[in-house]
Design brief:
Chain B: Residues 215-235 are annotated as: Disordered. Chain B: Residues 250-283, 331-359 form the 4Fe-4S ferredoxin-type domain. Chain B: It comes from Sulfuriferula multivorans. The complex is a heterodimer of chains A (261) and B (369). Chain A has 12 helices and 5 strands. Chain A has 261 residues and is of the alpha/beta class. Chain A has 2 domains: 6-154, NADH:ubiquinone oxidoreductase-like, 20kDa subunit (Rossmann fold, 3-Layer(aba) Sandwich), CATH 3.40.50.700; 165-260, no CATH class. A 5-stranded parallel sheet of chain A has the order 2-1-3-4-5. In chain A, strand 3, helix 3 (65-77) and strand 4 (78-84) form a beta-alpha-beta unit. In chain A, helix 11 (231-238) packs antiparallel against helix 12 (246-260). In chain B, helix 1 (14-23) packs across helix 6 and helix 9 crosses helix 11 (316-335). Chain B has helices spanning 14-23, 83-86, 122-135, 143-149, 168-171, 199-208, 215-230, 242-246, 252-260, 266-270, 316-335, 345-348, 356-364; strands at 7-10, 27-34, 37-42, 53-58, 61-66, 90-98, 103-107, 115-120, 136-137, 140-141, 153-157, 183-187, 191-196, 211-212, 277-283, 289-296, 306-307, 310-311. Chain B has an 8-stranded mixed sheet, with helices on both faces. Chain B has a 4-stranded antiparallel sheet with strand order 7-6-16-15, with no helix packed on it. The chains are: A alpha/beta (261), B alpha+beta (369). Chain A binds chain B through residues 28, 31-32, 34-35, 146-147, 149-150, 153-154, 159, 162-164, 166-167, 170-176, 178-182, 185, 187-189, 202, 213-214, 216, 218-220, 222-223, and chain B through 34-37, 39, 60-64, 78-80, 84, 89-90, 259-266, 269-270, 280, 282-287, 295-298, 301-303, 314-316, 348-352.
């Protein structure tokens, strides 16, 4: 067999859910294994974290001093570094601690906090090493993974999907939950890619794919207030899974300021 | 030519209309209540119609109210009408297959079963005429659209309960259907005053062997129509706004509306005349085959104005301006009329309730007089 591109899947601070997008490929995973060589993929079996690879998929955020060292090694060992999911791409839900006193949390939760070695703040991968491609989502979908692998095998970067969820929601002809039910849907500022999953079940988008291009968070916050949300409730719509993504972070803090006015 | 006669279809005979259409091979689609909205879906039984249902619409808001009366078409519209049935939101245009020494292309024309669309509104028909003008232009016929269009049978229902967001009377497109249908109905308490608009429609009505509508029934339908006209409070100027809009490209209102606009594309997605789309490849993982896909796009996306590394309309004010100046201005040059049929969907389904008629009034000055 000809030389297949070598692939590693690395886990940092995360729930492992994004790696499932590989395992959930089903039959396509067998095709993928013929096209690339999974050198390191602990969740599936192969463990060789220090091997040089063509593509490193990185799940999780940087949350401990050890992870800061590891990511530099991963970067040095990889031709392409692709972040998968909200944690790796924007810091994830754990970045909420950046807005709190992390030490106090640890002390409040653990009986022996001296064994917990975590950084005071959480950061996305791109804050410490250069990233070639970011895939958003909590979790990413198998479709995104397939598109990324295929495009890289073709020698191009995949087309960036940065439209709003609304476009996909309307293509699927879902009834808008904000207009018909007054739900505080994040779709109008959130990046597409999920297939408008939540609205298709009649619930509001909670922004797990992060900010879309050109997001008007100010207008949406104002609309949420009009729907009856209190400023702190508006803040929590933005300060959730992608709370550290700059557009959502700023919108959340702005809403919080309003609650103190 | 004599006017087609007005016939009367008793309410309990609506099922016979569906059965006749089904008997002629049509797949009936009609309005139903789903997820808190009127949506068009497979309609096998008249009992699926939204009986007693009213819609209350305002900019950014759509609510359903249900009553006990027998009327099934006493609402204005839902987010979508005919458009998705002809201009598919997403479809494969062709497939490419890679072999060792050549690439093969496969046609993927839709296997469209003839559809009978029940409950089209006058605004939907006006929009259909515009979509036809776009997709079926002489030398550039879109075969996917054409395939679905060729066998479409339309049963229009005159609008008797326009929403607060409707302004079809001002654009000259409603509220009663005037062309483009096979059968048109005006719904009364006891049933429907029916008229044929084509030989096919005539044939279906003949098969139903209906009695003529009485003078009183015809009067009721006329009165109802007049009420539906006078109930509309919003309006767009009926004149050609091309010159006035293009003279206002630097109007401060563009900036102001951009502060409110989410640039989310809901307005263009629900607009029954918007036809913008993008195309993309969906290759199989093994790289041997690829679907070439077309899907609805919007002038409110970044990709819509992306050319070779540059986004021409990076800011929302330019995107909103593009939409409005095209829809109400340059459409006149392209299609001989404005692209707005007064259905009001872009007001209702805008999550932040931006009112097109208000924006036009602000930008064009006298417009909302």
């Amino acid at each position: 067999m000809r030389n297949r591109p070598r692939v590693a899947i690395h886990k940092f601070s995360s729930c492992d859910g994004c790696q499932l997008a590989f395992l959930n490929l089903g039959e396509a995973l067998l095709t993928a294994a013929e096209l690339v060589e999974f050198v390191h993929f602990a969740e599936a079996g192969p463990v060789a974290p220090d091997e040089k690879v063509d593509i490193a998929f990185v799940e999780g955020s940087l949350s401990t001093p050890h992870e800061l060292e590891r990511i530099r090694q991963v970067r040095a060992n990889s031709t392409y570094l692709v972040t998968i999911g909200a944690c790796a791409t924007s810091g994830g839900v754990q970045a909420l601690r950046n807005m709190a006193d992390a030490g106090q949390w640890v002390a409040g939760i653990y009986a022996q906090p001296q064994y917990i070695e975590s950084l005071a703040t959480v950061s996305p991968i791109a804050q410490h090493v250069p990233v070639d491609l970011e895939l958003w989502g909590c979790p990413v979908t198998s479709r995104q993974i397939v598109a990324a692998i295929r495009a890289l095998l073709f020698g191009v970067l995949p087309v960036e999907e940065n439209d709003k969820v609304c476009l996909e929601c309307k293509r699927r002809q879902q009834v808008c939950v904000m207009v018909s039910k007054g739900e505080p849907c994040m779709g109008p500022v959130t990046r597409t890619g999920c297939g408008a999953l939540c609205p298709s079940f009649g619930r509001d988008c909670y922004g797990c794919f992060g900010p879309a291009e050109n997001p008007n968070t100010t207008a949406l916050s104002r609309r949420f207030a009009g729907l009856g949300l209190l400023p702190e409730q508006v803040a929590q719509r933005f300060l959730f899974i992608n709370n550290a993504a700059p557009a959502f972070h700023a919108a959340g803090l702005k809403a919080r300021e309003d609650s103190h006015d | 030519m004599t006017e087609p006669p007005f016939l009367f279809l008793p309410r309990e005979c609506f099922q016979a209309l569906l059965a006749t259409l089904a008997g002629q091979g049509f797949h009936c689609k009609g309005p139903q209540l789903h997820d808190g909205s009127i949506v068009y879906a497979e309609l096998a039984e008249a009992s699926q119609l939204p009986r007693g249902v009213r819609d209350r619409q305002a900019p950014g808001e759509y609510r359903i109210e249900t009553g006990a009366d027998a009327r099934c078409f006493a609402w204005a519209n839902g987010a979508q009408g005919l458009k998705p049935y002809l201009f598919a939101p997403q479809e494969v245009l062709w497939q490419a297959e890679r072999h060792a020494d050549h690439t093969q292309f496969h046609e993927t024309l839709p296997q469209a079963r003839p559809i009978a669309f029940i409950g089209a509104r006058a605004c939907d028909l006006a929009a259909l005429a515009l979509q036809d003008a776009h997709f079926l232009q002489q030398d550039y016929v879109d075969p996917y659209y054409a395939r679905r269009r060729e066998n479409l049978f339309i049963v229009a229902v005159d609008c008797s309960h326009p929403a607060a967001t409707c302004f079809c009377a001002s654009t000259g497109d409603g509220p009663a259907a005037s062309a483009g249908y096979d059968i048109a109905l005006a719904e009364l308490e006891e049933g429907y005053v029916a008229r044929a608009g084509s030989a096919r429609g005539q044939g279906v009505l003949e098969q139903l062997a209906l009695d003529p509508a009485s003078a009183a029934q015809q009067d009721s339908a006329t009165r109802q129509h007049q009420q539906a006209v006078s109930a509309q409070t919003r309006r767009l100027p009926s004149r050609n706004l091309h010159d006035v809009l293009f003279a206002q490209l630097e109007h401060p209102r563009w900036e102001e509306v951009a502060e409110r606009c989410l640039s989310c594309g809901n307005c263009t997605s629900v607009c029954p005349t918007c036809f913008c789309h993008h195309e993309l490849e969906q290759p199989q993982l093994d790289g041997t085959r690829s679907d070439h896909v077309r899907e609805w796009d919007s002038c409110f996306t970044q990709g819509h104005s992306y050319i070779h590394g540059i986004v021409v309309r990076s800011e929302t004010k330019f995107r909103y301006r593009q939409w409005l100046t095209h829809k109400l201005g340059s459409w006149h040059e392209q299609y001989g009329r404005s692209g707005c049929v007064g259905c009001g969907r872009c007001l209702t389904w805008c999550p932040v309730g931006i009112d097109l008629t208000e924006e036009v009034a602000a930008i064009c000055g006298d417009a909302n007089e």
